[in-house]
Amino acid sequence: MPYTYRxxxxxxxxxxxxxxxxxxxxxxxxxIDPARFIAAAKNTATSVAYEPKHQFSDFDVNPLIAAxxxxxxxxTPSPIQDQAxxxxxxxxxxxxxxxxxxxxxxxxxxxxxxxxxxxPDSSAIIIAPTxxxxxxxxAEFRSIGKGSRLMGALLIGGSSxxxxxxxxxxxxRIIIGTPGRIKDHLERGTLKLDNFSIAVLDEVDRMxxxxxxxxxxxxxxxxxxxxxxxxxxxxxxxxxxxxIDGFTDDPVTVKIxxxxxxxxxxxxxxxxxxxxxxxxxxxEVLAHESVSKAIIFxxxxxxxxxxxxxxxxxxxxxxxxxGGKSQGQRQRALRKFKQSEVNFLVATDVAARxxxxxxxxxxxxxxxxxxxDDYIHRIGRAGRAGxxxxxxxxxxxxxxxxx
Length: 403
Ligand code: AMP
Fold this sequence. Notes:
The protein is of the alpha/beta class. It contains 14 helices and 13 strands. It has helices at about 65-70, 80-90, 105-120, 130-145, 160-170, 180-190, 205-210, 215-220, 240-245, 275-285, 300-315, 325-340, 350, 370-380, and strands at about 95, 125, 150-155, 175, 200, 230-235, 250-255, 265-270, 295, 320, 345, 360-365, 390-395. The longest helix has 15 residues, at about 105-120. The termini are far apart. The chain binds adenosine monophosphate (AMP). Adenosine monophosphate binds near residues 73, 102, 105 and 356. Adenosine monophosphate binds next to helix 3.
């Protein structure tokens, strides 16, 4: 599809999709001390404001990109953009240590699109852990590259293979997708990466958590060594370091100190006695006027559906998102939530990964996450763009007397 019109794609299949990947990493699971779910939000007003060295108008980019950035209202770069874009434009490999909500997408989209427009022989692949994140990246690419007539393909699971094949045949030069589907295309011979000159890996830490390391290595090994690489990750572990060392060339590291979105989040627990008390307390919280947009996490797909139906029966404007839903259903739920047609979204961790909804005020952990990392990731959905967010985690009051 050319980057001229925003098409109504992807043609989502109605077939429910399975969660193809079970986590294969060895992250410790189990009990998390409830004390770790309690923290006051840092007063961001007293933290030192970042002073950017550039404005978007300073970057030496194609005038079409400059105009599109201006039309999007991007005038002042975020810290990751301010520091990564000049190196990206200069052709360096970039390692960006930043989480979602920091503006990291444009930090790689601007240099990648600029290169695509300057060099008609160049092609880029952008790999993301989830379909939703891949779609958001595509939307950002389409708006920054609007009018360029560059051709793109979105290669994600749960969406029409036919459309993907047509886009690839039409000569897509910007491939955005998830590891599993990209690998499928490589194996079918419908995608060839021999002449791709740019690779972007977004949320590398999440991709490794989801067990995609083998697929990523496989994909990168199909690319020429002489390429530009962008790796983005919120955290860096020895496994990530090994991957980076193997697949980048003397990368510039850009670290965003304030990347822990959780610092803006006021965190507390809600104690409950039994199931009916738990649900009653949830209703009480959601009915509070300060809770204008909340994401409610539950552990399993069944749990999410049950909770969603109960809340709907009690008159809440709610929708649900989990890996058992079709891509079309997930997109619809996300759109309704973004546009405030519903105020509440019940979701599993997998479905909520990478979603960018700017005005979420509250994150409710109806069930505690299995690992603390997931907790940090969940609460980072609130408190975006410097606003204070709130998180409430339900904790069972075992053995305590209640009156
Ligand atoms: P990201 O971390 O790339 O998902 O971006 C988070 C949000 O910030 C998205 O909604 C972007 O559209 C928005 N955004 C990114 N960069 C800028 C900027 N320089 N000025 C204003 N908004 C931005």
